[in-house]
Amino acid sequence: MDKFIIEGPTPLIGTIPVSGSKNAAMPLMAAALLANSPTTLNLIPRLKDIYTFKKVIEETGTSVNFNEDANSMVLDPANLNNTEAPYELVRRMRASFYMLGALIGNAGEAKVSLPGGCAWGPRPVDLHLKGFEEMGINIELDQGYVYASIKNSTVEGGDFTLNPSSVGATINLVLGAVKRAEKFIIRNAAKEPDVVLLCKMLAEMGADIEGIGTDTLTIRKVDELKGIEYSNDPDRIETGTFMIAAAMHPESDLTLTGCRPEQLGKFPDSFKKLGVDFKIDGTEIRIKSTANLQPVSVTTKIYPGFPTDLQAQWATLMTQANGTSVVTDTVYFDRFSYVPELNRLGGKLRVEKNKVTIQGKTILSGASVMSTDLRASVSLVMAAMVAKGKSEILRIYHLDRGYEQLEKKLNDVGASIQRVPQ
User: Fold this and answer.
1) What pLDDT is stored for residue 335 in this prediction?
2) What is the pLDDT of residues 144-162, one digit of tens each?
3) Contacting residues for 122 by C-beta, under 8 A, at least 6 apart
4) In sequence order, which residues have a C-beta less than 8 Å from that of residue 287 and are 6 or more positions away?
5) What is the DSSP string of 236-269?
6) How far apart, in whole angstroms, are the C-alpha atoms of residue 97 and residue 124?
């Protein structure tokens, strides 16, 4: 197990290329299992979660060839002969549960372990299972596994409303329906870029999906899907994370390349209120920070609202703003494990239910801190980069799940981050 040793404070000056999206890549990988020929996916990031999901897929007999240097992956399900996704792999991350929809779509049956992932908050799969039952899929639970089956090769389908809207459930139900359901309607479907990208890929493969990009998806069965070459989206959460990291130091002048700014939803609206010099030019975003950072309160909402995956980073940024701010998470109510650790660095944060109040500006000082999830980890890295002195960030394996070459990218633009054994 490794840790980071970070010397601060350091401004970020230079250019960072944004990697492919982890959250979008895994649904695309799952979709490749539905094809009748190989699929090539581009802009696939080299992340622990990607390698884990690759192993999950390979368990089925599917061939997966990952060209790491080119960030390109070829998946061929021609020899898919096993419809089980085992606990020892699925428990490592929740996105492995997409195998349920993919295997139903491919083989009409599946045995998939209930998922694991970050150690915060209940993210139940009830919606996924209720949706499949509404579709006509027989679902049984036994000893931590979901058993899915259908009597015939197809099911009639149905009409299902997601309450609340869920990215994971939308993706899973789409994967299961495109080759099995005569007609299946998903209402209150998630509209996140990850969902839209998946649906567009499936449509290009030959799927019949109406309403892509809206909250109502109508899916009609097709007999087969073809393998294609398709590109992943850049990671909007990585984009937002680096924007926030740049804003934290008054001398930062950072340019991000390979972005999709239109996928940031309402996030830029909040960012503009900080008082930083912030410009978008096509696929590039430039941030020149300020010594007079304004406090900006935010409330997380489903897309296109302020992302819950950026709330820890935003609260960390607010420790450097000149005044008091409040960050409210309406998506997940208990995603505040980073707060005690930020306070160890000198922050003044107070949690009450699903809100954290941040008193700024505070001078942060180096300390040893530990995180419990992916976004909490990166928020501590960001804090350490503006803290005076040396910090230790423990349990950085969380970062390896979701940020490709994080320390290299940050060191290339002026950070002082060293990875050492813990």
Assistant:
1) 87
2) 899 999 999 999 999 999 9
3) none
4) 243, 246, 247, 252, 253, 254, 255, 256, 276, 277, 278
5) HHHHHHHHHHHHHSTT-EEEEES--GGGGTTHHH
6) 11
- CATH 3.65.10.10 domain locations along the chain: 2-15+235-421, 23-221
**Greatest CA separation for the chain:** 66
For residues 86 and 103, the model is more confident at: 103
> Could you give the CA distance from residue 34 to residue 179 in angstroms, rounded to a whole number?
8
Q: Look at residue 118 and tell me whether its pLDDT is greater than 90.
A: no
Q: Can you give the pLDDT at residue 421?
A: 94
Question: How far, in Å, CA of 321 to CA of 309, rounded?
Answer: 20
CATH code at 2-15+235-421? 3.65.10.10
Which amino acid does the sequence have at 297?
S
pLDDT tens figures, 69-99 = 999 999 999 999 999 998 888 887 778 899 9
CB 338 within 8 A of CB 312: yes
The Cα 41–Cα 50 span in angstroms is 12
Among residues 64, 118, 317, 356, the one annotated as catalytic is 118
Backbone angles phi, psi at 316, to 5 degrees: -65, -45
Q: What share of the chain in percent tops pLDDT 90?
A: 89
Cα 125 from chain centroid (whole Å)? 17
Q: Are strands 324-329 and 349-352 parallel, antiparallel or unpaired?
A: unpaired
Determine whether 118 is an active site residue. yes
Cα radius of gyration (the chain): 22
CA distance 131 to 133: 5
Question: 109-113 and 145-149: which strand pairing?
Answer: antiparallel
Q: What is the mean pLDDT of residues 168-196?
A: 97
Task: Determine which helix (DSSP H) or strand (DSSP E) holds 261, and give its type and residue range.
Answer: none
Q: Which of 397, 404, 412, 372 is nearest to 120 (CA)?
A: 372
Q: Quick check: pTM over 0.85?
A: yes
Distance between CA atoms of residues 98 and 112, nearest Å = 9
- In this predicted structure, the answer to whether residue 259 has a pLDDT above a threshold of 50 is yes
For residues 135 and 104, the answer to whether their CB atoms sit within 8 Å is no
- In this structure, whether the domain defined by 23-221 belongs to CATH 3.65.10.10 is answered with yes
Cα distance between residue 363 and residue 347, in whole Å: 8
